[in-house]
Structure formats: C-alpha cells, structure tokens
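TL;DR need structure tokens for one chain.
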Amino acid sequence: MDYRNVRETAESWGISDRLVQRFCSAGRIEGARKLGGTWIIPENAEKPEDLRKRRSTGHEPAEQPIAETSQPDEKHRPSASWAPPAVHAPQMSPIAPGVFSRLMPLMNTSFEPGTCQQTIEQFEDPEIRMIAQAEFCYFSGDAERAVQLTSELLSHDDLAVRLSACLIYAYANLPLGNINRSRFALAELQRALKASPNVSSEQSRAAIAFMGHTSSILLHIPVPDDVPPVDSLLPLLPPGLRAFALYVRAHALYLSGDYARSLGVAEAALLMSPKVYPISDIYLNLVAVMDCMSLKRIADAREHLLTAWELARPDGLIEAFGEHHGLLGGMLESVIKSDWPEDFKRVIDITYRFSAGWRRVHNPATAETVADNLTTTEFAVSMLAARGWTNSEIGQHLDISANTVKSYLTSAFRKLGISKRQDLAQHMLR
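>> reply
TL;DR here they are.
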C-alpha cells in the first residue's frame, strides 16, 4: 500500500495540515498510523466528513466536531522572543458530571503498578487515550513526547480534554526550557477556566478549583483570586482526582509551614483511599516525606519514600521524584542512590532540567530568588541547614562526615554570596 504524509494529504483534500492531524488522532482515517513523530495516510483513504457541517443540520449530535486550530510548532524550540499564535477557542461543551472521566484520566484511574500501559490501552476514546498517554509520558520523564501529544489538543472543544492538555503541556515544557510555551499554556488554562460555561454548577466549580489550585500551588505561586476554594468541593471529585487534590492541599499547608497538619492530610488521604491510584499516591507519599523531614521524623520519611518508589518504579513514573528533590531533604541521596544508581542518575537529570524551568516561572512571579547555581547535593545540605539541622545531623542522615557537610555548605555560601547559616533561607525552597 502506498502512503502520503500529512502535508500531501492536506493538499489533496483541500484542508489544513492541522485538521488532517486531528482526523488521524480521532481515528477517523482508516489505515492512518503513526510513524516516528508523524502520521502517514493511505493514498486511497477517503476524506472524513466535517462533523461541523453535519451538526448544523441536526445530525450526529453526540460526536464532538474537530476544530482547526493553530498551535506552536514542536519541531523547534522557541527563541527568547517566541510568542504563541492567537488561539480562538471554539464554543466549549458545558461541564457535566461526566467531565471527571475525561479530566486527567490516568491520574483518575486505579491500576496495579507495572500495568500502566495496559491501562492506557483500555481507554476507548482515542483522545482520552492520547491524554492518558501524555500523562504517562510526563510522569515517566519523557517531556518531549508529552508536549508532542498535548500540542494537538490545546484548543479542543471538550473542556476537560482542553484543561488536561494545557496542564500537561505547561509542566512538560518546563524541563525543555520552553518557558514562553509553558506560560502560554498556563494562561490558556486560566482563560479557559474563566470562560467556562455553567460555572454555577457544583461539578463545574469542582473542576475549576482542581485545575486552578493544581496549576498554581505546584509552582509555588499565588492561586488566582477567581478560583473557587477547593476544600468544600473535594467530595464532588472522584477518588483519583480527590487524592491528588488532597496532595495539592497538603503541599499548600507545607508551604505555609504547617508541617504536622500537612502530614495529617497526606496520611489520611492514603489511608482512606478505596483503591491504589499510583500517580496521586506517589505525590501524597512525597509530600509526607517533605513534612517528616521538616519534623525530623527520618524513619517515617524513609518509609514514605520507599512506598512512593515501589509504586513508581515498575512503570518508570519517576518525574515526581525529580520535581520534589529539593524538598525531600536529601532522602533520595540517602535511600535511592546506592541501591538504584542508574535510576538515581535519571532522577537527578530530571531535577536539574525541571528546576531550571520551574525557577524561571516561579522567581519572577513571586519576587523570590530560589538558588539556581548549586549542585543537587549542595542544595539538599543547604535545605537541611536552613531547617535548623546541625552538621552532625546532616552528615549522619547522608552518611557523610560533618567535615564534608561543612565543605558543601562553604561551597554553597560562596556561590550564594552569603556568610552565615541564617542567610540560607532566602535562597531555599519554602
């Protein structure tokens, strides 16, 4: 069988490249398949009918139209002056209770560790399956693939798909250094939330609260004023999303310095969850590690870290460990480094790439200057020192001498231009 690429097919059918890609993603071109990062289409394939025209005559009311949109070209990273194209959002379908089956579907699904890919393949809707695959790519550290998958869905007319794509695209662009694209997606997410119809319904408010808090608190930036408070809406969320919302709530409490309450929220969420939701449970265990380290409950922190690791490692879901490295108080160095050295190297690579992008969004938005020139070990030692740990305590925790701790701190002081321990706090994560 002879095939054509997207451009050749678009010219033959008299439509845009983007619409051909959307037809392929929706499974509406028989025989189309992905080869590498692009679609190939049989030469004899028939052009699908545009559902927008059929809808206007009253036919096919249940199937969503495919909208042509213009998105950033993912083949090239943007320059410093890159600006996103204007995106004219189609009329989005109202949020209904069923929205939760389409909002971050993999996060919202219970599965046994090691069966993530099989779980994704069970989603029948091709676009929901694509969102789930993008989630997997992001949470397993494949940011490039996550961006590629979600770039096709940023202006989708189904609001749940659109919000999920914007959230993944925003965070996946951070480790790639595409900060303008990350900011663009965050702005699109906020704009979509504000433009959402039926915001008076409780289901709508719950979805808006979930996405608004998730997109802000994990960047340690203020939640927009018009985002509803999440606590009263938690019961409306399904178990998988509720678990992640409780992680976000615990993270917010951690940032306020209320470590004991944060730990209580995380551990209660884990105990009360009816099933295992690996992605949410990984994040809940990691915020528990952060709290335990701040409370100097090292044995408990170790237990939570190993629980998270057992959930993550079978499917390679290690992104969260890289995201949280600086807040884990050297636990990765203490627990993971010696037994899983290759995995540890991957986590540290994720840490450097993610934190570099994270700071470029966080620092300007908060007027804070989280350190960007320390090694991961220097940062871990400095975080513990800023929390009041002595050199001896840090050394015992990391299995290094107190003199080695002192050397790390001396190097950190020099890089940060400070001379005493009390000055560390202004350069560390909150």
